Amino acid sequence: MGPPETTFLLSGRPGSVRGAGRVRAFSDAEQAAAALRTGGCTGIVGALPFTPGNPVALWEPEQLVVEHNPIRPAWPQRHDVRVLAHHPEPAEHERRVAEVVARIRAGDAGKVVLARALELEVDEPLEPVALASAFANGNAAHNAFAASLDAAGDEYAGRWIVGASPELLVRRRGREVSCRPYAGTMPRSSDPAVDEQRAAALRGSAKDRAEHAFVVDFLRERLGAFCTELDAPVEPTLLSTGELWHLATPITGVLADEAVTSLDLALALSPTPALCGTPTDAAAAIIAEYEGSRGFYGGAVGWSGADGDGDWVVSIRCVQLGADARRVTAWAGGGLVADSDPAAELAETTAKFGTALSALGADPTLVV
Q: Is the residue at 63 inside a domain?
């Protein structure tokens, strides 16, 4: 009998974490969190859905291996990728954006993150961990994740979520905690002069700065409730992830109670306004009206050790693999505020699809 198979992977600048096998699964978040807090398990790995209260995909692995280096990236294997369907079609997404912006202006919400999805078919089955290595190849930090979704129930049997999130939801090391929210986006250009102009435009964009401020304010309030100290800079920084420029803010704090685990924090912070909006309940209701269920897109993927330390990232720039490993769903969204432009929002989602398409070995311009 060989070693247990890898069922979880998370990679980035701090290193990589692999979970192998399953001791027991949790579809209820609070049961998993309680097992950690009471010392009843050696660690928890997996994924949280976008909608709190829906089944989670968490489990205690047989082995939890924490390493100081990210995974070795791999060149994407070339695949024949076919677009089966747009959800919704691009023109309909623009129409929906215009409608939601009108509702924001009318006071229904302050910000709403509206996403669209692609149903894809790949010519041969994909191996989740190998696909994660291809995602890691697309960014300098070698960010990547892969998590089995079996624990969420029969609907997710054989399915995986795989991607390369640049956005740290929360990290805990002892009593020190940190977040790095991303909100506000601009496509990059291969022309250095144009790329610099776009970066400057994003830095000075009132619309993008307002969108980003919603996220920082939310995290300052939610994380602050757990901390004796909290530092959240007023001015965001500018970061790139290969295809895109982002506004980002590093937030750090000191926990008041060291019994609070990284999973506890992830459950308290997800979903953030970076993937939902504000006020949270109003934005989530609008998203459900237009998109239906997001499943695990926009939730979180991560791990927590027996000591409570761990890392959770926002599940974006990702795909869900079907049980046949050939059917693939990819998502891309953008934050809408009162002065959002429908055509620009469509272009932003198109650029964001590039991360997944590149990792699949497809032409990133497949979506227009």
A: yes
Q: What is the CATH number of the domain that holds 216?
A: 3.60.120.10
Q: Which of 62, 89, 155, 167 is catalytic?
A: 167
Within a domain: residue 79?
Answer: no
Q: Which domain holds residue 181?
A: 6-73+87-359
315 found inside a domain? yes
Q: At 203, which amino acid appears?
A: R
Average pLDDT in the chain: 93
Residue 367 belongs to some domain of the structure = no
Q: CA angle, 70 as apex, 33 and 191 as ends, to 5°?
A: 115
Is the per-residue pLDDT at 183 higher than 80? no
- 207 included as an active-site residue: no
CA angle, 25 then 300 then 347, to 5°: 140
Predicted local confidence at residue 1, as pLDDT: 56
167 is catalytic: yes
Q: What is the pTM of this model?
A: 0.92
Q: Domain count of the chain?
A: 1
Q: How confident is the model at residue 2, as a pLDDT?
A: 64
Which residue among the candidates 60, 99, 111, 291 is catalytic per the annotation? 111
Tell me the pLDDT tens digit for each residue of 107-125: 999 999 999 999 999 999 9
Q: What is the pLDDT of residue 322?
A: 97
